[in-house]
Amino acid sequence: MHAPGHNRPRNSGTPLDPSWFEGVGVNASAVERRAASLTARRSVKKEYQAAWLVQALTCIDLTTLAGDDTPGRVRRLCAKARRPLSEDLLAALELDAPPTVGAVCVYPTMVAPAVAALAGSGVPVASVATGFPAGLTPLPLRLAEIAYAVEQGAREIDIVISRAHVLNRDWAALYDEVQAMRAACGSAHLKAILATGDLKTLRNVYAASMVAMQAGADFIKTSTGKEDVNATLPVSLVMLRALRDYGERTGFSIGFKPAGGLRTAKDALNWLILMREELGVAYTRNDLFRIGASGLLTDIERQLAHYATGRYSASYAHAMA
């Protein structure tokens, strides 16, 4: 079934089946070559680049996850989410309609102010939960945190898996954990953060991706943004191959979200190229592709301003709030 504000059927999951991933090998050198070749052989210029950057903007989960977040800061961020481009820039780009970002992502205690600030905009509120970023609080508390965020109005929940289950290859424990979190989400979409920088091998990344999807994840996400290594193109490629394989087996289209380390317009273009080359145009749209970022929007604005005026503007001209 569809959830409010989303136009894709929910992933109903499947019974845990390790045969889908246990025998899958990953050639790290081949993965790295493939990822490098995508950005080396593909480029977009001029008005095409501007169009791609506007598309990337609509896929951003505009995020604030700071210890000093306040309702006022969240409201200002939501104002930016509703109207990320200035009136002058909108006029110069001659867009049919003002774009908005894909979602605003906050801590559970900031969900209610975000929901109020985004009312009527169509921009959903996403919330991290489950003891973000470590995910090491007891499971009942993690499930209660999901329930709280959903009650406050979050329509998407970014959960964190227990990395120990992957490192110990305890697939049943990982499956049961994600399935319980999926149930706690109710109608809210579940985005499973794999924290790939902690998983050690690409085989683990593939297996964790598949188990999360079998357990009902609607999106798989690279990172919390807090690991030593966050989103990379090779890791993203492995995750995309996993969701493609899952889709071929089940018929469900699962979304993908890289997070952490995407800071420049060039990064956004690289990941859009990866999505289009591996999975097609549908995976460059925000119902199946999100970018977890905040500062990225500033560089996209600067590049669009350069396209429109021929001059680079200062970063302070494109403040987040």
CATH C-level name? Alpha Beta
- Uncertain segments are none
Strand content: 5-15%
Give the overall pLDDT as a whole number.
94
Radius of gyration over C-alpha positions, nearest whole angstrom: 19 Å
Approximate shape: globular
Return the domain count.
Answer: 1
N→C terminal distance: 36 Å
Order of helices and strands: HHEHHEHEHEHHEHEHEHEH
Strand order of the largest sheet: 7-6-5-4-3-2-1-8
Q: Give the helix/strand class.
A: alpha/beta
β-strand number: 8
Mind sketching the topology for me?
Layout: H1 28-41, H2 46-58, E1 60-63, H3 71-82, H4 87-93, E2 103-106, H5 111-117, E3 125-128, H6 139-151, E4 156-160, H7 163-167, H8 171-185, E5 189-193, H9 202-214, E6 219-221, H10 233-250, E7 255-257, H11 265-279, E8 291-293, H12 295-309
Parallel strand pairs: 1-2, 1-8, 2-3, 3-4, 4-5, 5-6, 6-7
